[in-house]
Amino acid sequence: MPKHNRGMPRRVKGRLHMAAAYVEDFKSWLRDGGYKETTIKEGVRLLACWTDWAHAGGFTIDTILAGFEASATAFKGRKTAKRTLGAAALFIRYLRDRKLLPQPERPPAATEIWPLLGSFREWMRHHRGIADSTLGLWQPIVIDFLKALGDDPSAFTAEAVRTFVLQRAKPHSLAHAKNIAVATRAFLRFLVATGQCPTGREYAVPSFAHWRLATVPRFLAAEDIARAIAACAGESRLRDRAIVLLLARLGLRASEVANLKFEDFDWNNGRLAISGKSRREEWLPLTQEVGDAVVAYIERSRPRLPTSRLFITDAAPLRPLTRIAVKCIVRRTLTRAGIVSAHKGAHVLRHSAASAMLRSGVSLTGVGAVLRHRSPVMTMHYAKVDFGLLSEIAQPWPGRQPC
After folding, report:
1. Which of 141, 155, 216, 262 could bridge across to 183 with cysteines, CB 3.0–4.6 Å?
2. Element (H, E) at 110
3. 112-133 burial, b if ≥16 CB within 10 A, otherwise e?
């Protein structure tokens, strides 16, 4: 067996061919990405199988992209075949990362196709302080608006705006319909403010029936929260435990947890800096329970990755967690804990934190400060979890006293 194949499992019958000169650096690249040694050996074995096929087909390192495209039909069906194709894709990613292959052509971004969308995002970010996560939710709606009405704001008639909103919202729930109306109205306000649309055009957006504070906040009972935390026991789940505690004890949002950095923690004063939707940095008290969980994750479980972001993926390739990943972690945790609930997203833990604080005697003002609500009306929503708390917001009856 050639020198470059030493250390590989004996079951490898093929040669690495075009990958032979790069295999050692490829393995180092995989280690840097957080892959385990067993995974690396298996990946190299599967890569040898793929290069055997490519060599037999006359493909070389110079035509590896064409070979990979051609192999899509040859390696399909069974799980092993798909894993072999995955090893080849990983090797191509390595070659591109090492600048040995050109990067794939990037499709044009939505803001490049629709310059008006890019201007809208920039204006809302700087003038209204809207978070990127919110702009991301609005973007598909604005794109559909531009596709339907074109990119000439002077041609946006009140009838066309109203028709778009009603048609776009027709197949969706009331909550989604409200989001469509909000996004469209925000876009039109931007156009009016920048002089691209007639004044008052935003009033053409229809409103959907909605009664403030009509629903009961979604939350989990204290016993369910305890079961969720207990479901994160063990060294392998230190990260998940820290995330669940940050959500359930401090009421953070999923995006706020995902974006936490080391410098956000003031260990000397026992507090945590959070930049929420308003983009204002605010300090929250860091409880002993939450602090211990974060320290345990940092010292005993967090992978080594040159980034200031706190939470990192467990599986390779290692990278900082996203808002969606935090939501998935919560969902898996609640399922593992056997909690039966219609709502298993990260936000239900924020609601649960508010409800728990109120039941513990914290005032509505105090809860609003922890949750960083800009309006006390938002905090009043949680008073409905306990009828006794409604007395804080109840208004006197203007009529006569009963006989």
Report:
1. 141
2. helix 110-113
3. eebebbeebbebbeeeeebbee
pLDDT tens digits, one per residue of 225-247: 999 999 999 999 999 999 999 99
- Average pLDDT in the chain: 85
d(CA 231, CA 30): 31
Rounded to 5 degrees, what are φ and ψ at 275? -110, 105
Is 222-358 the same fold as 110-204? no
pLDDT tens per residue, range 40-73: 999 999 999 999 999 999 999 889 999 999 998 8
Contact (Cβ atoms closer than 8 angstroms) between residue 8 and residue 44:
yes
CATH class for the domain made up of 110-204: mainly alpha
Reference 242, options 156, 302, 191; nearest CA is 302
CATH says 222-358 is which class?
mainly alpha
CA angle 339, 343, 347 (to 5 degrees): 110
DSSP codes, 13-60 = -S--GGGGGGHHHHHHHHHHTT--HHHHHHHHHHHHHHHHHHHHTT--
So where are the chain's domains?
A: 3-97, 110-204, 222-358
d(CA 385, CA 324): 28
- Residue 120, helix vs strand vs coil: helix
